[in-house]
Amino acid sequence: MKLSKPQLEILHVLWSSDGPLSVREIADKSKYRIAGRLIVSAVIENLLAKEAVYQAGTFHSYSNKKETGILLYAAQIRFDEYYSGKFKGISSKNLCRLMERMLQTDRFSLKQLWDLSALLEEKTKPFRD
Question: What is the pTM of this model?
C-alpha cells in the first residue's frame, strides 16, 4: 500500500492513540492543527478508500436540545504490518546493517533492548543446542 506523507501523518496519530479519535482530535494531534479539520477529513476519506482506517463508532453529544454525532476513526492496518511490508524487498544483509545502525543510536529504551535480546536468544537457541 502506497501512502502519502499526510496519510502517514494521520496514521501515526492514530497508531499512537489509546483509542479511536474524532477528526478534531486527529487535527489537534497532527501537524495539520492550523489547517484544521478540512484537510484531515479529506485525508481520512482517502485512507477509508484504501481501507487503511475504519469508522470505529460515533460519539453522541447533546447540547442545546440538539444531538450531534461525531464520527470516530481508528487505524485498520497496524504499524508493524505497514512497515514490515516496506522491508520485504530489502536483502537480509542490508536489513542487518539497518538494524545495527538503529541499535547504535540511543533511541531504544532499556526494556526495548531487553525484549530484542530475548527475541534473538529465542531465535538462535535451536542453533546452539
Answer: 0.71
